[in-house]
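Make up an example, fold above all:
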Amino acid sequence: MLGQIFRPAVVACAVSLLCATRAAAWGSLGHSISAAIAYGRLTPTAKARVDRLLSQEKDEIAGPSFVTSSIWADRFRFESEFETSQWHVASYPLSWQGDFSSCPPFTGPGYVLSGCVVSKVFEFHRQLSPPPKDPRLIVSTGFSDPATLKFLVHFIQDIHQPLHVSDNNDFNGNCVQIKSPRDLPDTNLHAYWDVSVVRSLGSDPTEIAARLSANIGAAEADAWTTEARTSADAKSWISAWTRESHGLAVQVYGRMSNKPGCQPSGELSADYASAAQRLTELQLQKSGVRVAFVLNRLFDPPRRIRAAQ
């Protein structure tokens, strides 16, 4: 599908582990849009339980609502002694043909990997799940359940930003300076995808979420959650969604004229900007639907697992 969305363009997109210290997938606006889509699809029971859980702790970083709590993980890493920057990405090389259910290898000098977005989705999901029969499988992240919920929502969203699960040796695009189209400020490639493209959709997350939600059909929502509905193993759907997003990044990189690494790029074309906007809308829709599906399963398990319409 991305091949139809993306036409030849001046430059493509990149991601590596290092850049997670500098940029956040989609920024506050993108995370809020995805969360608003998800919140509208929660069942009444799941919504009540999620709200009750979030109310258990005062949040002075992001705010008390489900939508604002989705940006908590980005702000937490700058306002806490915990090092969580690595958790926002999984830097699979574009040529990666291996497993997407565990963190990719990273061999930087003196580097110690404390986890990646893939492993953290699994861990935070496991903590909120019913305890397994085998006590050896119990996972404790060291965080409270309200904080765990915020991490889980945010990291599922991060997986849907293709630049956060792929790597092309350019520090997540932070070292690739671009000239933005449509009177947008010039920036680096990663910031363009995280912020500029999303801002081109509008400024009100509630309005944007309502517009995108109205274009999600039942058949699409079912297709987007097939892996989670057909497997009891969380690693299965985490891996499938990560693989899908990595595949999008591979196709985007296939249109690039730059070689891997830190190289300046020219001005992005209007066609490229339009394609990036359509892809971002799609990924925001998918992430919202999938977040809702996962939370409905966790907090309203007696129901057949279908997102509320």
